[in-house]
Amino acid sequence: MPTLSRMSMVSPSTLWFLDAGMDRHIPEKLGKCKSLKILDISFNSFLGPLPDTFRSLESIGSFIVEGNHLSGPVPTWISNWKHANSIRLSENQFSGKLPSLKLEYLTTFFADANQLS
């Protein structure tokens, strides 16, 4: 089974690793996939915060990371994802306040089962 850290990033538009048994931190190189429209890495065992390189995911439409062990605050830069229509952060260990999200195309947002205030 390929691991995300060993993948060659050739500007994919969709990455789907649903329940793929992956763990550790999310590789920062995923944030360099500027043409990425759909990222689903849900129900794995990823740890730690979302990589800061994700602020560059300008084309992201669906961002699904639910069911991991991600932690820290939900980054304010997700409010810059102009094309986002679905953001799913549920069932992690995110903490603190949610940033203000004024995204024109956002129709689905889940952040339940975290430690958010």
TrEMBL record:
The keyword Glycoprotein applies. It comes from the Eukaryota. It holds the Pfam family LRR_1. Keywords: Glycoprotein, Kinase, Leucine-rich repeat, Receptor, Repeat, Signal, Transferase. InterPro entries: Leu-rich_rpt (IPR001611), LRR-RLK (IPR052592), LRR_dom_sf (IPR032675). One of its GO terms (molecular function) is kinase activity. PANTHER family: LEUCINE-RICH REPEAT PROTEIN KINASE FAMILY PROTEIN, RECEPTOR KINASE-LIKE PROTEIN XA21. This is Leucine-rich repeat receptor protein kinase MSP1.
